[in-house]
Fold:
Amino acid sequence: MGKVMNHEEMVVEDIVKALSPAIYNPAGSQSASFAMVCAEGGDMRYFVNGQDPNASSGVLLEDGDIVELPSIYHIKDFRVIKAGSDAGKIVVTYEV
Structure:
C-alpha cells in the first residue's frame, strides 16, 4: 500500500463524471498510482476504459461497493454516471 496523497468526493447525477486531474495529478507533484473509489447512496454505473457509461450500460456500482483503480491509466479513464432515480456519491482516495 502506498502513501495517501489526496482525496475527493463528488455527487454523481445524470451527467457523466471523470475524476479530477488537478487532484490526482497535481502540477509539480507526483501523480497518483492507485485509487480506491467508495460508493455511497444511489446506484451508479462506471467504465475504466474512457468510455462513457449510461443508466443501463457499464459496471453497476451500488452503495457500499469499492472499486480499486491500480494505475494512473485506470484513474484517468474512470467514468461514472447515476443509474437509478437517486443520485450517488463517490469518495476517492489517491495513493502514490
Summary: The chain has a mean pLDDT of 97. The radius of gyration is 13 Å.
